[in-house]
Design goal:
The chain is an alpha+beta fold and 348 residues long. It has two domains: 3-123, Creatine Amidinohydrolase, Chain A, domain 1, CATH 3.40.350.10; 128-339, Creatinase/methionine aminopeptidase superfamily (Creatine Amidinohydrolase, Alpha-Beta Complex). Helices cover 34% and strands 24% of the residues. It has ten helices and 19 strands. It has helices spanning 3-13, 24-31, 57-63, 75-84, 98-107, 118-123, 128-148, 158-171, 232-250, 258-271, and strands at 18-21, 39-44, 47-52, 68-70, 88-92, 111-115, 175-176, 181-184, 205-210, 212-214, 217-218, 221-226, 283-285, 292-296, 309-312, 315-318, 322-325, 328-333, 336-339. A six-stranded mixed β-sheet has the order 4-3-2-1-5-6, sandwiched between helices. Helix 3 (57-63) links the parallel strand 3 and strand 4. Helix 9 packs antiparallel against helix 10. 44% of the residues are buried. It binds ligand L64QQQ4R. Residues 133-334 form the Peptidase M24 domain. Residues 4-125 form the Creatinase N-terminal domain. Keywords: Aminopeptidase, Hydrolase, Metal-binding, Protease. This is Aminopeptidase YpdF.
């Protein structure tokens, strides 16, 4: 079954005959067109049509095999109107703006139906080409981390570490997947402490979370690194997080329930008296978006399947003291899992 077939089946399940796709990552997933923010897709029982404008005529032809209609609104809507007249047409409730919905209401004689997660459902399982893109992105991130690791010393600014990571990713042909997190000493208490002017000090733990975006696909990895000798308290926190992370990674296999993986890691931190400081979910899917399904969070009913790519990233954040997060990128395989991130972890 192609992904278009899967999407059309999901549309039937949602009781819509057509779907107007406006989420850029979903536009890319269906068409391969890499400027998804400047494109829309209409999916009907007959197939998909990519709508974009004349700035992208050549690019769309090169990147996509989906039939294309080059126009700007209102002509875009007028063309699509003829294909969906009288139908039940789904729109992406989590992505279409109010103005976008008004435009559809103005131009189409249809019943508009809010839908959620139809294309995202198809994106959960990655094709071999998608897995290769994530694998390549992570391999580049591993190489760049190894190059930058010697720079992690007392006296260096967080911003300069981030710049070196960003430069390495760019030189390697990738984009920077998201704002690079370099959180040292007490700043480590911020799970998303993007790099600041703080100068790293002797005895700091430094949390580094960064990723590449290659051929549209992300990598995601966090390492917490010791500069000098951290306090006994932070070494204890580090080892508890490492134990939780390794146990959760080991439990990744087809059929594993995402909510139970989260509970496993949270339970280990609980035993160490640290669960209340684990301020986020255990992990998430990674692909065209840095955060996508499945969700490895408390209570999640998502079930892992071969071809999913997920992160495992427990963390402990002690306000005014510091923090630790350790994150691996993991592919769910037929018989278990494969860890895609190969950067060594500190043993403290
Ligand atoms: C702004 S992109 C940050 C990427 C980072 N590696 C990351 O995923 N951090 C997690 C702590 C996170 O944001 N988790 C989300 C899914 C959550 O718990 O809501």
């Amino acid at each position: 079954m192609t992904s278009l077939d899967q999407l059309q089946a999901a549309m039937s399940g949602a009781d819509v005959e057509a779907l107007w796709v406006s989420n850029p990552a979903n536009v890319r997933a269906i068409t391969g067109f890499s400027s998804g923010a400047d494109g829309k897709v209409l999916v009907t029982a007959q197939g998909a049509t990519l709508y974009t404008d004349a700035r992208y005529t050549v690019q769309a032809r090169e990147e996509s095999r989906v039939p294309q209609h080059i126009a700007r609104p209102p002509e875009t809507y007028q063309d699509a109107a003829g294909r969906v007249r009288g139908q039940r047409v789904g729109f992406e409730a989590e992505h279409l703006t109010v103005a976008g919905l008004e435009a559809l209401q103005d131009h189409w004689d249809v019943t508009l139906v809010p839908t959620r997660g139809l294309v995202e459902g198809v994106r959960l399982i990655k094709s071999p080409q998608e897995v290769q893109a994530v694998r390549d992105a992570q391999a580049l991130a591993d190489r760049v981390f190894a190059e930058v690791r010697p720079m992690l010393r007392a006296g260096v600014r967080e911003l300069d570490v981030a710049l070196a990571l960003e430069t390495g990713l760019r030189r390697g042909g990738a984009e920077v997947g998201f704002d690079v997190i370099v959180a040292s000493g007490p700043r480590g208490a911020m799970p998303h402490g993007v790099a600041s002017e703080r100068v790293i000090e002797d005895g700091d733990l430094v949390t580094i979370d960064f990723g590449a975006r290659l051929r549209g696909y992300h990598s995601d990895m966090t390492r917490t690194v010791a500069v000098g000798t951290p306090s006994g308290e932070m070494r204890r926190v580090y080892n508890a997080v490492l134990e939780a992370e390794e146990a959760a990674v080991a439990a990744i296999r087809p059929g594993a329930k995402a909510g139970e993986l989260d509970a496993l890691a949270r339970g280990i931190l609980e035993r160490h008296g640290l669960a209340e400081y684990f301020a986020h979910s255990l992990g998430h899917g990674v692909g065209l978006n840095i955060h996508e399904g499945p969700s490895l969070r408390k209570g999640s009913e998502d079930v892992l399947e071969p071809g999913m790519v997920v992160t495992v990233e427990p963390g402990v954040y002690l306000p005014d003291v510091g923090g630790v997060r350790i994150e691996d990128l993991v592919l769910v395989t037929e018989d278990g899992h494969e860890v895609l991130s190969h950067t060594p972890k500190e043993r403290l």
